[in-house]
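call fold(seq) -> tokens
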Amino acid sequence: MIDIKGKTALITGSSRGVGQQIALGLADLGCNIIVHGSKKTSNDETLKLLNSYSVKTYSVYGNLADDQEIENLINQVNDLENPIDILYNNAGIMKDYHEDIWTHSTEEWMQTYKVNVVAMYKLCAAFVPAMIENEFGRVVNVTSRISGQPQLAPYGASKWAVDKLSQDLAVALENTPVRMNYFDPTWLKTDLGGEHADNPVEAVLPGALKPVLIENNGANGKFFSAL
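ret:
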């Protein structure tokens, strides 16, 4: 395992749920944290929880379904003048459950892909080149092993796209000290996972930290799971 004390991590969707747990887990290892939520005020709870850790914290915001807000988010991060060492693409959405599996609208498909896949790509494009130049980087893209759920087809398809995107982009990083992998937090009790999920949200740790702590020549374009 590597030492990430003093490194800086941007965790999307870290205002609550899985992202919040990842932020706390990384802070416990001495990593500085950039908290992200859809709105500026969304980050208050996570920032408060991070007060008990001896790390620097920052707050950025933006709706990942909106191209302009993604650009504004990238600009906010760049304005911090603190290079990103770790990009944890955690944020994701799941649209309504459809009993009639043939009624998913074009809007649902497009919005799901914009947040779960396109925004992830744009953030990688914004920050990975500097990681390569700085000779260190870890990118973790959150996926899901959801299966047999046509009622949630846009979400399931978008997560398979995350796998493929991660595998393909990792090829460009093979001979660098930047590692990109994808991670399944499993079914957890969150706003997205619901109250009937198998495990509490805290169960995402310590598994969520494993793809961050690998060596520079470690796994690349590979799958990790919390459990």
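DSSP finds five helices and nine strands in the chain.
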